[in-house]
Structures are given as C-alpha cells and as structure tokens.
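Query form — protein ABC-2 type transport system permease protein

QUESTION: What is the three-dimensional structure of this chain?
INPUT:
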Amino acid sequence: MWAYFKWELSQFFTNKKNIAVYVILLFLAIYFVLKIAPSYEPIEKVDVAEMEARYTTRDDFIKSVEGKDNIHPSVAFALAIFPGWNEYDKARIDAIGDKDYLKYAEATAGWYLYSDQLIVNSGDFFYNPLYYTYGNNYAHADGHYGYGYTASRFTGYVEGNSELSMELFEERTALQTLQRMLNDYLPIVLFISCIFLSVDIVLKDRRNPSLLKGFPIADWKKLLMKGIVAFIGSVLTFIPLCVGFIVIGLQNGFGDFSLPVPIYSYIEETFTNMPMITFILKNVLFMAIWFLFFIVISLFLSIIVKAEFANLFVSFLLIAAEWIYFERVMGAYSDIERYPTSYVQVGQVISGYRNFVYESPDLTYQYGLTIVGGCTLLLMILTLIVSKFKRFKLIA
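ANSWER: The structure tokens for ABC-2 type transport system permease protein are given below.
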C-alpha cells in the first residue's frame, strides 16, 4: 500500500492541472499584495482631522448655549452628552500627538462604547456614514456591530501586551489581514482549489488501467490513499498564499498571536476577545473538515457517476447554495443552522458575524463542526459501502 501511496503522490504533484492551481494561487497572492491590500480603507480608521472637526463643532455648540435659560429639550440633551463625547475625542487627539498609543487605545475603546450607547436606540444620532452606503437597509445594525467590534478590539489592546502601532489600529498587519481574509472570501478560494485538485483523482486512472492493475490492493484502500493524497495537496494550498503574508508583514508588521479578535455572541449580544492564534487554529480545523467533505464528495461521485462534470457541479453548488437562500434575520424563523452550506463562510461563523446577520442562536462553530463533520463521516461510510460492489470497480 505504501508503494501505491507514493505513486499517487507522484501523480498528484506532476499533474499539470494541479500545478496550474498552485501557480494561480501564487499569482492571486501577488495580486492581493500589489493591488488589493494597499487600497484597503477601514471604516473605523485613525483620522485625526475628523476627530478635530467633531471636537471643534461640539465645543463651539457647548460654548454657544451653555448658561442659557429656556433651551429646547433636544438642545439640553445635546448639552448633557457632548462634553463626555468631547472628553474622549480630546484624549484621542492628544494621545496621537504624543504618540501614546496605549492612551489612544484606552480612549478609543471608551469613545466607541459611549457612542454606541447613545446611538443604538436613538433617532437623533447616526453611526459612521460609511455604514449607510449602497442602500444598506441594515446600516444601523451594521453600525452597532461595527462599534461593538471596535470597542472590544481596542479594549483587548489595552488589556494585552502587544506592541501597538497605527498599522495595528487599522488592522493592516499581516495577521490582521489574514483575519480579515478569513472573514471574507479566502475560505471559498481554498475550497475551490480543493475541488479542482481532487476532481480527477479517481477518473484519471482511466489513462493507466494496466499499470494500476499491478497494485494488488482493494478498491477501498485505493480510495483511502487517494483521499489522503488529495487532502495533503489541499492543505498545501496555504503555501503559495504565504508569499503574500510575508510581504505584508515586511511592509506593515506581522502582529502577534496574542492579538485580540472580537467574537460576537448573539445570545448575550456582546463581544468577547479571542487570541489570534485560537482564531486561526479554529479556522484551519474547520477548513480541514471542509476539505475532507469536498474530497469525499469527489470520491463518491467518481465511482457512482464517473464524470468530472458531476464532481464540479455538485461541489460548486454546495459552495453557492447559501447565496441562493441567504436572507438577513432568516434564522429567526427557519432552521438554517441545520444546513451544512450555511457554514461555508468559515471565518464569519467563528467570529459570530454569521450568527449576527442571520439572528440565529445555533449557527455556531461547534454546531457547524458537528453538521459538516457528520455529513463527511456519512459520505465516507457510503463511499466505503459502494466501493465493495463490483459494478462500481475503479478499474474494469
């Protein structure tokens, strides 16, 4: 069996299609570093001019109405809350001027908590205008999430031991960029790569039937070896992407594994911080389960249907399925947490963002591992059973 494993491994890494997949991933990493990463503009960025404009406007208002009698209730309300807001903004402006990043982080955490408390149930104030672009009907909710996320993140900086910097505050370091990509489309890119790498791992044997008959091992053992080889190849798709990670780290710093990653809890409606290393490891574990899921689907369909198109169609349908039925807050009236396709956006599931947009208390990392892992195990058992039938022999 070891000889067969080595033969499969050699076939896999000399396959021109597989080499092309790795090369494309490398070009994507380079394109990201040269084009996408430099153009990243966070909604909540360090903008001293904006802080000063807010501070000056409120300060002028306070001076113009302070001490006057018979003022309107709304003016009285503004007069009551503006000094607190300005106190935070003044502390942030002074901290940036003094390059006291710890003091800036502390004042910023307080500013976002204070602002969110005033805005979330108010019709008089609004979150950052960038949340209200592109006709976003859930801008207020997204602003509430964004302010809570930022407050939690800066609280983590204050309580942690990380070396603070402007790049860190705007999430531009290599590890923070990786975190953002895991919350975006990086898992889908890796899943698509896994699909292309494993789509022909069984059907390619048609080209060498006589040679394969020289390996006197059972079909199920061959399928096991093929699955292991495809899994190894899928895990190695991280390597081309490391080029981009290293370049960003050299430009903006790498960050460290103790950086706080805010995690939203729908039940408690609050954020707690998770260490960066824990967040990354959870993503790797979840994506590894997904890799196995797609590989087993390819193995199963290859011995049943014997057509690469079927492998691609079913696998891509599973990735795209959530986009078909996705609707915000639908978790409140449907059991979307039972669909494995609801967990494709791995990073968003772990961070709790998917939990937030669906408003589903059960759409969690632990439940997702159970659902996707259970489906993978079931497919493995079915594949093993089917491979015992002579009708579905790998080589006729």
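ADDITIONAL NOTE: The longest strand covers residues 260-265.
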